[in-house]
Amino acid sequence: MAKKNKGAGNALVQGSILAIASIISRIIGLIYRIPMQNILGDIGIGYYSTAFEIYNVMLIISSYSLPTAVSKMVSAQMAKKNRRQTYQILKCALLFATTTGTIVALILFFGGEFFATTLLNTPFSIFALKILAPTLLVVAILGVLRGFFQGLGTMMPSAVSQIIEQVVNAIVSVWAAYVLYRTGSRIGAILGDKEHYAAAYGAAGGTLGTALGAVAALIFVIFIYMIYMTLFKKQMKRERNVSVDSLGYTMKVLIVTVIPVLLSTTIYNISSIIDQGVFKQVALLQGYSQNDIDVWWGIYTGKFKLLINVPISIASAMAASFVPVLTGSYARRDMEDVRNQINLSTRFVMVVAFPCTVGLAVLATPIFNLLFNGTRQTNDIASCMMWIGAVSVLFYAMSTLSNGLLQGIDRLKVPVINAAIALGAHVIVLVALMLFFRLNIYAVVLANAFFALLMCFLNSSALKKYSGFEQEIKKTFIIPAICSIFMGAAAFVIYFLLDHVLIMIGGRIRNAIAFVIAFVVAVIVYAITLLLFKGLSEDEIRKFPKGMTIIRFAKKFHLL
Q: Who has the most CB within 10 Å: 182, 187, 254, 349?
């Protein structure tokens, strides 16, 4: 039992490390997107986001599923102490990544015109696409090395490389966006369309940071890899009578592992590019101007989605850390340990997702006014999106985690089927909301929340069926929800009072002071109520990073 708890606890710690790195990376991304938003405007951010939608789909096709697949295969072999086969897996994965990354990069570079103009009716995003194309090869190789280390049970190389990648990305993106925006202005003035050429060139500058950030992360991971392989190869040479599968057979196993994960991830993420295509085409048919459509999409992707993706990244990190551990437990047919890990990861994600959902909804307006210099009208649109769609954080966090958990228990096809069902229903809902209720961009927000909710139900049913896991309701959902309501009420009251008391201070400064104090109060209220309502036990807290420190602090104030 101690060994099981240690495995689950280590997965939680490693997942927390990756989650913290993901949050730091997202915060850096949030910070640098503020000057990017101010440089490019909503139209430029729309071009930037369109390029990324296409890039993300191509990335999913080429290599997005590789870290998970490599992590699963490496974890299974290292459990048997078979380093020679582990090394064979690594070689196959690198060969696969190089091949697919190169092919897809060439397709995107030479076929960018079709994707940007014909498919998504956003021709000015072509410049950003051209810069993003070579990044696909870099990220493919980077993903394999990250998956290798994750399979070994350490998230540190992935975590540190994420932060390095985002720091370089932030610096280069803002600088390049500023320089190329001015270049585009001059070119656009000559061609008679200064606004759109400036936005398009600026968006291309923003994507240059993505490319160079990925290169910087790859250089770091290769450095760590070279150091580690010195020891790894010495251990590999000491192995005797260990069978190693042929390169061809290993490649087949890799492809068989990759394809279900690939299909699931593709269907799960392709909804965004389908949304864009459906939304823009239907909106044009309904008589909305192209400029309004581009502005709405820029607000949706550059403000709303940017914020909700921060807490969702925690679920992705937890899924990445628990997949190798679940794979090992499931291979041993230790279903009690499997259920324990599913419960632990779900509890952790819900404890974070509930307050994030409520906090984003309650403080939507001050957050957007603090972060973005857009007009009051555009920030009001973004706030309305958040009031309607903040619940997406909860649904996406749960569905993202459950996808990873199903993959961990070797039910790779199930998320594919579930995602396909949810995607079909999602498109029907989106079209209905736009045609019959004329909700324009708000239809996209609601349809995405519906997609994630349906995925939650389908994946939860599958987890129960294949693992026997019975979801505990009170401590997983009810208590975090109640505590989040208290937290949200406290945050709203504090912000409202301070915003009126500090009326003599300038608007932006007053908003910043009121928001920061309300945020701090919200965190304290949630932590206290969660402990008072017994939302987390002492044993569960002990498994968290710095768990003993948290326990000592809580006991000091009689909260445990």
A: 349
User: Which of 47, 57, 30 lies closest to 205, judged by CA?
Assistant: 47
Helices then strands (H, E): number in the chain? 20, 0
CB distance 199 to 184 below 8 Å: yes
Residue 3: per-residue pLDDT: 46
- Show the tokens assigned to 540: 């569960």
- In angstroms, the CA 210 to CA 13 distance is 28
Q: Which residue has the tokens 């090395």?
A: 145
DSSP labels for 504-533?
A: TS-HHHHHHHHHHHHHHHHHHHHHHHHHHT
Helix axes 507-532, 479-501, angle to 10 degrees: 150
Other C-beta atoms lying within 10 Å of the C-beta of residue 235: 11
**pLDDT confidence bin for 1, thresholds 50/70/90:** very low
How far apart are alpha carbons 205 and 197 in whole angstroms? 12
Written as one string, the DSSP assignment of 383-440 is: HHHHHHHTHHHHHHHHHHHHHHHHHHTT--HHHHHHHHHHHHHHHHHHHHHHHHH--T
User: For every residue of 255-302, which 3-state class applies, written as one string?
Assistant: HHHHHHHHHHHHHHHHHHHHHHHHHHHHHHHCCCCHHHHHHHHHHHHH
Residue 438: left (phi > 0), alpha (psi -120 to 50), or beta? left
- CA distances to 57, 129, 155, 264, 423 from 268, rounded to whole Å, are 10, 22, 24, 6, 8
* CA 105/CA 55 separation, integer angstroms: 9
pLDDT tens profile 406-465: 877 878 788 888 988 999 999 999 999 999 999 999 999 999 999 999 999 999 999 999
Q: How far apart are CA 394 and CA 385, in angstroms?
A: 15
Crossing angle (nearest 10°) for helices 2-59 and 290-299: 160
Angle at the Cα of 374 from the Cα atoms of 132 and 438, rounded to 5 degrees: 85
3-state DSSP of 356-384: HHHHHHHCHHHHHHHHCCCCHHHHHHHHH
Q: 403: closest CA among 329, 459, 465, 342?
A: 459
Task: Please identify which residue in the block is written with the tokens 């986001």.
Answer: 49
pTM of the model: 0.76
Cβ atoms of 250 and 74 within 8 Å: the answer is no
Q: What is the mean pLDDT of residues 209-222?
A: 94
- Which of 43, 68, 67 shows the shortest CA–CA distance to 128? 43
Label residue 502 by pLDDT band (50, 70, 90).
confident
Cα distances from 351 to residues 259, 386, 408, in angstroms, run: 32, 20, 22
| Dihedral angle over CA of 146, 151, 153, 158, nearest 10 | 10
Among 108-122, 209-223, 450-464, whose mean pLDDT is lowest?
Answer: 108-122
Angle at 483 between CA 481 and CA 486, to 5 degrees: 110
Least Cα distance to 18 among 140, 160, 222, 166 occurs for: 160
CA distance 36 to 125: 16
